[in-house]
Amino acid sequence: MTLSYDLAIGDRAYSSWSLRGWLLFEAFGIPFKQQRARLYTEEFPALLANFFPARTVPVMRTPDGVVVAESLAMAEELASRHPEAGHWPADPRARAVARALAAEMHAGFTALRSHCPMNLRVSYETCEPPPAVLADLERLQQIWAWARKETGATGDWLCGPYSVADVFFAPVAGRIVGYNLPVGAEAAAYVAAHLAHPAFRRWRAMGMVDGADQPFYRREWPQRAWPGPAVMPARAVEGTEAENDTCPYSGKPVTHTLELDGRRFGFCNAFCRDKTVADPEAWPAFMAIYRS
């Protein structure tokens, strides 16, 4: 029997820590099975009961049965077990910087988190950020610039290749664009890199369709279009007639369809279809069919 990791997460649109935990697997090519529960429902404590002693998500169970809660502990454990995956930079100096960044994000920026809870389903024109939030934004930009200077990074990411440090700031990118927070050009480019990252796009696409809106995260500020990459204009349609006979993700028979550019494509369930409608280009298996 092949053993694998089990990962427990909450709502994809709202659970910033779940996003971090998921990226630790998805962005580094580590296979895992996933269990999800809606926040603020009876599902959530029932899920955590299977991952004792965890008190929140994300939490993983290793192939040998050890429960590891807290995303920073998960990052270190996965890096130890899978050194080839590249969770931390190989260069010792860059690795030290990346660890410092991840630790500060794990423990800090409480004003930003409180005033701007992650909500990947909307982007507001303004959120009237108070001074404490602006101070958090200033600190973020300071340490991001420091990381690039210390490591000599010149690409999209803070310490060279994409690393745990970037994983930990992915929800911050969602908050900055979700609440239209003021940052400089260098920070804005870093945020844009997150929005275009393939794994982030897949997470957000799923988050757009994996349940009803959570009232806790609703704000009354005016909304604007999501600033990420433009999404291809797919739409869900009735029927099972499609160019493909089986779902591009599961290989199961087609039961649900979408239309894109006058063509129909099929999937094995509504979620497979709807996550694809949300962002077709986020899904390589679908795009292989579309481009064939």
Automatic annotation (TrEMBL):
A GO molecular function held by the record: glutathione transferase activity
InterPro entries per the UniProt record, alphabetical: Glutathione-S-Trfase_C_sf (IPR036282), Glutathione_S-Trfase_N (IPR004045), Thioredoxin-like_sf (IPR036249)
Keyword Transferase (UniProt): yes
A Pfam family recorded for this sequence: GST_N_2
Matching Gene3D superfamilies: 1.20.1050.10, Glutaredoxin
Protein keywords: Transferase
BP-aspect Gene Ontology terms: glutathione metabolic process; L-phenylalanine catabolic process
Coiled-coil residue spans: none
Source species, domain of life: Bacteria
All copies of domain GST N-terminal, residue ranges: 5-86
CDD domains, sorted: GST_N_1
PROSITE patterns: GST_NTER (PS50404)
Keyword Transferase: yes
Protein name as annotated: Glutathione S-transferase
Lineage, uppermost ranks: Bacteria, Pseudomonadati, Pseudomonadota, Alphaproteobacteria, Rhodobacterales
